User: Fold Methionine--tRNA ligase from Duncaniella dubosii.
Amino acid sequence: MEKKFKRTLITTALPYANGPVHIGHLAGVYVPADIYARYLRLRGEDVVMVGGSDEHGVPITLRARKEGITPQEVVDRYHTIIKDSLEELGVSFDIYSRTTSKLHHETASEFFRHLYDKGEFTVQTALQPYDEKTGEFLADRYVVGTCPRCHNENAYGDQCEACGSSLNVTDLINPRSALTGEPVKMRDTTHWYLPLNKWEGKLREWILEGHKEWKTNVYGQCKSWLDAGLQPRAVSRDLKWGVPVPVEGAEGKVLYVWFDAPIGYISNTKELLPDSWEKYWKDPESRIINFIGKDNIVFHCIVFPSMLMAYGDNFQLPDNVPANEFLNLEGDKISTSRNWAVWLHEYLRDFPGKQDVLRYVLTANAPETKDNDFTWADFQARNNNELVAILGNFVNRAVVLTHKYFGGVVPVRGEMSDTDNEVFAELNRIKGALSEALDTFHFREALKQAMEIARLGNRYLQETEPWKLAKSDMTRTGTILNVALQLCANLAIAFEPFIPFSTGRLAKMLNIGKLSWDMLGQTELVAEGSEIAPAELLFDKIEDAEVQNQVQKLLDTKKANEIAAWKAQPQAETVEFDTFAACDLRVGTVVECEKVPKADKLLRFLIDDGLEKRTIVSGIAKFYKPEDLVGKQVCFIANLAPRKLKGIVSEGMILSAENSDGSIVLLSPSATVAPGAKIG
Ligand SMILES: Nc1ncnc2c1ncn2[C@@H]1O[C@H](COP(=O)(O)OP(=O)(O)OP(=O)(O)O)[C@@H](O)[C@H]1O
Ligand SMILES: [Zn+2]
Assistant:
């Protein structure tokens, strides 16, 4: 039997404030959380959605060092971008705060101190990497080295981004300091550990016995962690940026970012509801739902619950953790550091007023059960073929026809035909399926069901053809349009959790007041005799040029990444001087230059080499216009055995350099020299 709850607290993973948010964050966490929150609010439930930026941890301090600014400046910049862009997308947080707030520092500090006083920690001294040049211990990402699994040379001390392995500093081959590049030294340092093993039994019972309904990806990950056996986990770090460890002898140490971040959920609730926050956290009749992406499962299902159990005081464990898998972009893993992303703030700038299109596409294609790919082609297709052609089209037809035949006044619904009754029966079936999908976090399925109402409407108009009937039977035409308008009003409810901007406009067009989930399925939402507003298009077609711009932006990024990753080839084997001297290298002046017919890569040169004019064929046609080269001086190998290319005998080879992007650049002397001058 499903348990009834009095209220729900929705938490959303705290985005890391070392960059803006991208579509992966949205698809994984913020869009589904917002859908669920809006749905519960429509049902009139007591629901609170909290969020905030995660502003501590090593990547932020590294970024600050790189840019020569303070960590506070880094987080101020990104917190503002993240907060504003999520708000503009319509993510309806009740509070969006940050972990550098005073209240959070106090809350996290008190949490640690309480566990410390209760004796919930163990203290361990262990060897940690240390940079002798800067005199600092190197936590997590301060250490880079070669990944033992995939041999990526730039794996971090906690993770390899190339192969996705989670690592320990000691796993890295040739570990070096990210600050100075020096090999790391190991030194003793003391930290506080939370013995997760102490909570293993309770965790097993709570998840493996008590929550078999969880998503299989979440349940499966928890099971494998638990089956592998839990170890004590360090909850402090040698760092200056963060919440200081509030005990004596802990100077220069802060709370591990994954100890402090989930406490952010508590401090955010506290900040929002100073007097009543506890009932959301401690009343067994409250329900906590954590929205996260798959890489956060262990922290939300193992680490944070252990912290809450260790704290005691009735803190409740989450009722569900509907974690999503990952969204990729055009076939590649989304990455902040490689700038491989669609950034929300840029999307909002490039597609003004199209928040709902992104919300729709990210839900329709959400990585609910497996990793999924976002492509601009799919984005365009879903907008044009679904939002415009199905939903927008149906609403537009119903509203336009009501204006055309009834002057915008909702016509009377006369006698109902079997078709009309079937439409309403189908609407009811959809309501059931839609609610069930939302209740069980199947948002893709829920969105599909909502779209079924619009499909139903289009089929209905197609079958009944009111535009034909209007010539002979206005009563029947009125009935049909009344039914169609009721479906439109139902769409305004069914789609509200997903695309709230458009449903707001739709409700206004239909001139209907506040809607609630209970009203879904009702057939008298638009009152007979009431006036509706003129038709307004809910969605516009997205043209090829708009998505091509976005694809080009990604291609540019790819190119920039390749150039940044380019490395010179290792040096070839040593040769004796005589070998070099045997090559007769000279400078010549280009007398003629033209494209070789039927060969798109080749140019034919006629070179004045100081003795005579010689012909050389060179494969650089993609990079130079022949007319631009006439009169220029080039370097060439004079004594290379002649070779036939496309029927032309080439007497030598022109020297060029291949750039990191694959383009070819000719070599020329830095000042004009006599043709035939020797190079050596
Ligand atoms: N591509 C993605 N698909 C789905 N969820 C994601 C994706 N990237 C991040 N998330 C989720 O978004 C939440 C906030 O992410 P966080 O700020 O920690 O970013 P991150 O994982 O460091 O991403 P990035 O490396 O791209 O900055 C986390 O719960 C994370 O699992
Ligand atoms: Zn690796």
In short: The longest helix spans residues 376-406. The mean pLDDT is 95.
